[in-house]
Batch of 2 targets.
Target 1
Amino acid sequence: MRSRPPALTCVASVSGIRGVVGDSLDPDQVLYLAAAFGSAIAGRGAVVLGRDSRPTGEMLMQAAAAGLRGVGCDVIDIGVVPTPTVALEVLHHRAAGGIQISASHNPVEWNALKLINDQGRTCTADQLEWTLNTYSDIPVGMWRRWDSCGRLRRDDGAVERHIARVLAAVDARMIRASAIPVAVDCVNGSGSVMAPELLRQLGCSVTVIDGRPDQPFPRNPEPTVTNAARTAAMVAAAGAQVGFIQDPDADRLALVDGGGRYIGEEYTLVLCADARLAAQAGGVAVTNLSTSRMLDDVAQRHGARVVRTRVGEANVLDGLARHGAVIAGEGNGGVIDPRVVHGRDSHIGMALLLERMAATGSDLAGLVAAIPAYAMRKARVALDRSEVPAAIERVATSTLAHGATIDRQDGLKLSWGDRWVNLRASGTEPVARIISEAPDEATAASLVTAVAEAAQAELLEAH
Ligand code: MG
């Protein structure tokens, strides 16, 4: 008899197969998704399973483990861990793959499966497609007999190994000597099991805000300026020189300065690159083409080079490998240091920032003040995906494009020295996105308007 999984009702992309538990993502779907993923790799090694702290995590972990074991995969359960820890453990155990159960920054009712391949990287679009196709057409005989199902074991050493890798990547002795007062908000997510301990091992005096993974998220867990208001006040009250804010699976990092000012996520990569490029003369930094040009200013300071790719972690990781970069990431607070893990990791982000603070004797506010500031403007325009190519041609041939450097990797990007604007189709909605950056608000806003006009598109909203 054939197994028939329920139709998929969740959203699937390489960054996660995600849904609201009990609505668009159910345990039976998770069981079959894990089985489909495992059926391709059964026999090639174990599968590492981790999760963030949300209340449905353990249940979905059990469903995923059952699916994997049912198709013959051994499972290594590493418990509540940051997402980058799962990637590291795939390499440590020479596993055939990994699954992190986490809906990242989404609110508590969401959950998701993030698939990791045997390279310790987020699965490719092809691997995801293969898994989804297998799900919708489960092969006859996929389930194993009782005597050839996979086994389950637990490994509690993953976080300790991850901490050791971060410590080895920075000048831990110099950081310890500075005894920097810091605050860290783990939003009761999986960073709670690692960040406070890492910071203590770096000699910091640590104020922990919401570091209980057995407790619910105290707020909307995305580290935006609005959601982080209470945290910012607590950082100031704690007398910290820097406040770190993680998302629930601890791959993204936002910053607050000692005065309680939300610095945000756009600065995270820039400041970490400042640390890394200072230590590695002539290094290359890789980012996507809509990340702030502050990165170019920092790279120039160290005689380094910036390479830009299409938006998306996979594209940035491909660029990192191709150009032998020493640091990479995106403007969403995602920092990638290939010495630690080939994926975003808030922990190496914290360590690099502390290294720069220790080397310069400056607090976070001082490091931020030393970087030329820009205004960024983001807008959405009413354009269906099919209309975007023609709109891009209208902009590219308009007077606006005269004298601009043109980059067509992802839609259209026009750059002039200290300013740029990018128009591209949204991957998820029937709109196009415009992002601009310029030395002041008025110029950034006028670039957005000019592109919308040249594209002959109606401006829906700008912020
Ligand atoms: Mg995340």
Target 2
Amino acid sequence: MSIINLIAIDGPAASGKSTLAELIAKKLNYFFFDTGVMYRAVTLAALDNVTDLDNESLVTEVANRIQIDVQPASKQDGRVMDILVDGKDITWQIRTPEVDHNVSKVSAYAGVRKAMTDQQRRIGERGNMVMVGRDIGTVVFPDAKHKIYLEASPEERARRRYVEVQKRGESISYEDILTSIRKRDDLDSSRAVAPLKPADDAYVIDSDGKTIDVVLQEALQILGKPVS
Ligand code: CDP
């Protein structure tokens, strides 16, 4: 599927993909779409509706049934956009440690991935979009014009996530975040369907020790856009 002006950004948990994507989108006047929120929304709905998340067919039913929507931010509480499931605002509920803990299991289910991938392709066809996830450059849009794979060490990523959760006033330790990130990395990279890995033609940026500004400049150069 050939898509006009779609920038795919993939990478592991808390590598700074969303922050980078948002800045690129603003700069180019593109739409920013974070596919992670969809897997998080399915996980939240499954936690509310299915007693056993090991039951793949029940979780897949939930993924096929719910209506996930993103809308411009309706509140100024640090959100980039509103995330809705069946009309209900779940923007912050999808960021809890419980969702973090279960999201990689739910996202490994083939039926869940199919449901989400179909929706992501429909959304991406609009073009002029920066789409962020784990498998955008490899599976969802393998013909994307530009692909970036953003990585950083688990320690650096845990530090960044720790600052984020502290800002939100949540009490979770750095060590717990690091453990959760490592576990998700493992599950996301080893799953059978659409594992986390750079596409062969992706440009890999290692953001360890780099400010977001430096990463943005590097990305804009790759995209062939003016950097200032
Ligand atoms: O923000 P963070 O990097 O922590 O994670 P996220 O992008 O919100 O994604 C949460 C989880 O959803 C990941 O750990 C993956 O298990 C899954 N995911 C996926 O499988 N495929 C995607 N395209 C996006 C997310």
